[in-house]
Each structure stands twice: as structure tokens, then as C-alpha cells.
Specification:
heterodimer, A: about 250 residues, mainly alpha, 9 helices, B: about 350 residues, alpha/beta, 6-stranded mixed beta sheet, 4-stranded antiparallel beta sheet, 14 strands, about 25% strand
Chain lengths: ~250, ~350
């Protein structure tokens, strides 16, 4: 346990060093995101003729935030490998006592924590913009999202493993962002075959909760089970691909 | 098995027959380093490139002891980097085993005691400063960051501005930063693959100080390099590898030991018969190239004895050259012999 805490602390320190040195980029990133969201909201209100007070925009707001959280969940492992490979530092992450999957998990935990913070902040911001007229309970929306996010981490692990083997496939990694929009938009609630896909049931349940649907506990259990299955499959696939990369001599090799 | 017993067994193993090896060195190098830290036993590794099988390493064995500086020599593509990558767990061998402190290296725990610099470049996060990198890397290797040790290494390497982002440093200083990071967590063993690339003469001097400092503190250092002078100055032991096979493993003294210490060459005009001076019994001229004749001399005494015999005929020669046989000559001969054998 002390080891895990030590590595979490170390990754937090790394994140702090980078944020501190590149604070302007961080601020700019958040500003762009908020601006994009406000522009979307404004367009829907003016062109679509919808109002915040009516609750008609709640699903859109939730959908946007769900997509952002999906990106954070998915990209934690895959982005890390892509970035470390680009910087040619991935080999140093391998020559350490902690397995690479564990190290990526520590980073993912930090990203998810930060992502959850942004998620809550996003909802609070929207609530403030809408003068408290959002019609849904934050907890009801957050629970399925948080339960569903590990499934995308699993997908991220698979893509990270592929990037270890084929480092030039970063374009495929970029395409995944569009696939995430589909997963968020799919009508996976009530439970149907779409629900088997990663994150889809969690996102659909969160959107349903936003419009006041009373979600049964069994659905949350299904979301958790779906998440666990994808995460496990992702970890197994990543470990296999890491071993394969080691065998082929592709680790620490651009 | 007790640790000491394991060491005795490993020493015996290392000295046991290595087919095709010119000389197998002993563990006693005369500077008090005995305990074997890492052993590679019968390592084999092949790659497939463009539907061709390439044997990067074949039945390769190597041991490394605390405080030892080992120079790994070999031409391009000999398998040096593969050996380092296998030791660093970046590449999985097809055959053989690796022992860490006498036991099979299972898992990754032992990597907290390993430092690596690969292919003459450090895997440094260039967005961070050297100090931030050092703190982070110590954390990765589950070791406490020691500011005094960091300062000592910075001073040894003469690394300016340890608090500036590494991306702002010059190529040589980036390498110094990477070298520092390979030692900042006080590893028991450090593998330096082509550590002199990009360093100026002053940087190489600093690197030598760093390696000596590390070895004096018990760190085993394995240096793979094409810079023979650098290896000659630092290494206690030399391992020479060619086409994936070890062709020499012994002390530097053994490696440098040659039957003939000097080569005397006479350059005669092409249009005249050589008229070479007569030499005393046991010494013969050999034609190295048209008009170029040489004789191998055992030592300084033999050289002094031969020079008076040459003097009356020197006016007929275009030039005379006396060269001391160096590590480079021995190395080239070894590689040449290994290539011929393989062919």
C-alpha cells in the first residue's frame, strides 16, 4: 500500500511540476473548453429557441460534460504512452520496479480525479450560468458516469498497448475521440444491446437521470460490471502487448 | 543456498568454457570488487527483419561485479545494445537466464537498483528541469531523493543550471543531465550505452570522473562504446562481442597484452629492390603492402637493439615509422578474426 501511495504522490508531483511550469497552457485549455461549451449553449438557445429554464437543454449540457469526462477516462493511458513515446521517455517508465500498467493506473487515477473535479465544476458553472435552474440532481448524474469511466480506461489500455507495438498509429488514437461521441450519444438506456458497449450505458443512464428518470439500482450494478469487464480485458490486452513489444524489442524504440 | 555459495558457483560458471572466447578473465581484478551482482547466462536473442532472421546474441554470458567498470566493445550491430536492453528488461531474451545477486531475476523489484543510459541519449523529460527529473526518477525507482548526492553529481558533471528545463540545455548538457539521472538513485549497477556521443573533451573528462566516482562507491558500471580510448582509460575489464558472440572476456591488462608491443615499418621506394637491412635471428620482415615492410618487436629493448642495424640503410627508405600496438589494433584483430571465422 505504501508503494502505491508513493507512486501516486510521485505522479502528482510530476503533474504539479508540469502544471506549474506550463500554467498558461493549462489556463488556455480550460478557457477554450468553457468558451466552446458556452458557444454551444448560446447557439442552442438562439438558433434552437430553447431555454435553460425549461430544462430542455439539460440533456445537451449533460451530454457535453459526459463527452469531456469520457475523453479524460479514455485518454489517460493511451495519451500517456503516445506522449512518452513521442518524448522518447517510455523506456524509463519500463525500467522501474512498478509494472507499466500499474504506473499508468496511478496516472489514470489522478486524471480521473481531476476529471471528476472538472465535471463537478462544470455542472456548478452551468448551474451558476443558468441561475440555479438546472433540473437534475448532481449525485444521480455523477454516479453512473463515475461507475462507467473505468470501461474507457480499459479501452485506453488497449490503444496504449497497440501504440507500444506500432508507434506510428497515433492517428487511430485520434480517431477514438470521435468514437467516444457515438458512445455518449447511443440510446443504451433502458438496457438493450447497445448497453454492452463501453461507457454507453453509463452515459445513457446519466442522461436519463438528468431528465428525472428514476434509475433502478440493478442498472448501476450492470454499469459497474460492464466497466470491470472492459477494464480487466484492457489490462490483459495491454499486458500481452507489452510482453509482445518486449519480445520484439520494440520498447524504448521509436 | 547461501549468498556466498551462490557467488562461488557463479564465479565458477563464468570461468567455465565459453566456446570461441580468446581469454576468460578472472573475477579478481586487483581492486577489491568480488561480489557478482548480475549474471547473464547463455543468452540468445534473434530478431526478424524483412523476413530475415538476425541473431543479435548467441549463447552470450556475462557477469558484473560491484565496483567493476566493464567495457563492452563491438562493431555496429554486434549486439551490444541488445545486451544492455536485455539487462534493463526492455527486451526479452529467447534463451538463457539472468541472475540478480545470485537468484533468477524474477519480476521488476531489482530495477530500483539499476540505472540506464541507452544509445547515447537520455530518456529525460525535457519539459522538466534536471532537478525535477531527478526527484521524479527517484520516486519511480522507489528511492528517496538525496539533495546532497544530487549536488555532488551536478558538480562532478559540471552541469550548469539544474533548475532550467532540460529542453533549453545544449546537446552535451542534455546528455549530462541524462547521465546524472542514471546515477541519482544510487544504483548498484549502471549500464551506459554510448555515453560519450555529443560530449566535448571536457564533458568526456567529467564523465570519466563520474564513472570513477560511481565505481569507487561500489556501483558496477558497464560501458558500451565505440570510443576505445575512453574504454581503455576507464575499464577494469573488457568484453568484446562480434556478431552476437563473445570473442573476448578478460581484464584490460589481458586485453592489452600483446606478444609484440611495437611495429616498425619501413617505406621503401617502389622502383628499387628493397635492400632491407638484415635483422638478428628471430626477426623477419613482412610485406604489409607494396613497398611497405614491417617487423614486429617484442618490447622497447628489442626496438633499441634493431635501430642500429637499420641506420646504414635508412637513407634508401622513404620513411620509417614506429607504432605502439594499441587497444584499437587488438580490437580490430579480434573482430577481424571473428568475422573470418563466421564467414
Amino acid at each position: 500500500m505504501r508503494r502505491v501511495i508513493g507512486h501516486l504522490g510521485n505522479e502528482l508531483r510530476l503533474a504539479w511540476y508540469l502544471r506549474r511550469r506550463y500554467w498558461f497552457e493549462s489556463v488556455l485549455g480550460v478557457t477554450v473548453l468553457v468558451t466552446m461549451f458556452c458557444a454551444l449553449l448560446y447557439a442552442l438557445m438562439t438558433v434552437g429557441g430553447k431555454s435553460l429554464a425549461s430544462g430542455a437543454l439539460d440533456t445537451t449540457i449533460v451530454g457535453f460534460v459526459l463527452w469531456q469526462f469520457a475523453i479524460v477516462s479514455y485518454s489517460s493511458a493511451s495519451n500517456d504512452i503516445a506522449e512518452e513515446t513521442r518524448q522518447r521517455t517510455v523506456e524509463q517508465l519500463v525500467i522501474v520496479p512498478l509494472p507499466l500498467a500499474g504506473l499508468l493506473a496511478a496516472r489514470a487515477a489522478i486524471h480521473l480525479l481531476a476529471g471528476a473535479g472538472v465535471l463537478v465544476a462544470g455542472f456548478l458553472l452551468v448551474g451558476w450560468v443558468a441561475d440555479g435552474r438546472l433540473q437534475f440532481s448532481l449525485a444521480d448524474v455523477l454516479l453512473p458516469v463515475l461507475l462507467a469511466s473505468p470501461s474507457l480506461m480499459g479501452i485506453g489500455y488497449v490503444v496504449a498497448g497497440v501504440l507500444l507495438l506500432a508507434k506510428k498509429l497515433e492517428i487511430a488514437h485520434g480517431l477514438m475521440y470521435f468514437a467516444l461521441i457515438s458512445l455518449v450519444a447511443l440510446p443504451a438506456y433502458p438496457v438493450n444491446p447497445f448497453s454492452l458497449l463501453p461507457y454507453a450505458l453509463g452515459a445513457a443512464t446519466a442522461k436519463a437521470a438528468a431528465v428525472g428518470v428514476d434509475v433502478p439500482a440493478t442498472v448501476h450494478v450492470m454499469i459497474a460490471a460492464n466497466s470491470a469487464a472492459y477494464l480487466l480485458a484492457g489490462l490483459v490486452a495491454f499486458s500481452w502487448m507489452e510482453r509482445r513489444a518486449r519480445r520484439l524489442g520494440l520498447l524504448g524504440h521509436w | 543456498m547461501e549468498f556466498a555459495d551462490a557467488l562461488v558457483e557463479k564465479s565458477a560458471y563464468r570461468d567455465a568454457g565459453q566456446a570461441g572466447i580468446v581469454s576468460a578473465g578472472s573475477l579478481n581484478h586487483g581492486h577489491g570488487m568480488q561480489s557478482s551482482l548480475v549474471d547473464m547466462r547463455g543468452i540468445g536473442k534473434s530478431y526478424s527483419r524483412a523476413a530475415q532472421r538476425i541473431d543479435a546474441l548467441r549463447d552470450f554470458s556475462l557477469s558484473l561485479s560491484a565496483g567493476e567498470v566493464l567495457g563492452l566493445l563491438g562493431p555496429n550491430g554486434a549486439g551490444k545494445t541488445t545486451a544492455v536492453k536485455i539487462l534493463a528488461t526492455l527486451v526479452e531474451p529467447d534463451a538463457g537466464e539472468i541472475l540478480w545477486r545470485g537468484a533468477p531475476a524474477a519480476g521488476k523489484r531489482h530495477l530500483r537498483e539499476v540505472g540506464v543510459l541507452l544509445e547515447g541519449r537520455g530518456a529525460v523529460n525535457e519539459r522538466l528541469s534536471t532537478r525535477e527529473n531527478a526527484r521524479y526518477f527517484c520516486g519511480l525507482r522507489e528511492t528517496r531523493f538525496d539533495p546532497k548526492h544530487f549536488a555532488a553529481l551536478t558538480a562532478l558533471l559540471d552541469l550548469p543550471d539544474a533548475d532550467a528545463p532540460v529542453r533549453l540545455l545544449s546537446t552535451g548538457n542534455k546528455l549530462k543531465s541524462a547521465l546524472l539521472l542514471s546515477l541519482v538513485h544510487r544504483p548498484a549497477v549502471v549500464f551506459l550505452d554510448e555515453p560519450t556521443i555529443g560530449l566535448d573533451v571536457f564533458g568526456v573528462d567529467r564523465l570519466e570522473s563520474l564513472v570513477r566516482h560511481a565505481a569507487e562507491h561500489g556501483t558496477a558500471v558497464m560501458i558500451s562504446s565505440h570510443d576505445l580510448h575512453f574504454i581503455e582509460r576507464l575499464a577494469h575489464r573488457i568484453v568484446c562481442i562480434c556478431r552476437g558472440r563473445k570473442v573476448f572476456d578478460g581484464s584490460k591488462e589481458e586485453f592489452l597484452h600483446v606478444e609484440h608491443a611495437y611495429v616498425l615499418t619501413l617505406h621503401m621506394p617502389d622502383d628499387r629492390p628493397p635492400g632491407l637491412p638484415r635483422l638478428r635471428t628471430g626477426l623477419d620482415w613482412e610485406e604489409a603492402a607494396p613497398g611497405e615492410y614491417r617487423v614486429r618487436l617484442r618490447d622497447h629493448g628489442e626496438l633499441c637493439a634493431v635501430l642500429p642495424a637499420l641506420q646504414p640503410r635508412l637513407h634508401a627508405a622513404r620513411a620509417m615509422q614506429v607504432e605502439r600496438v594499441t587497444l584499437k589494433d587488438k580490437y580490430l584483430n579480434l573482430v577481424d578474426a571473428a568475422r573470418k571465422e563466421a564467414a
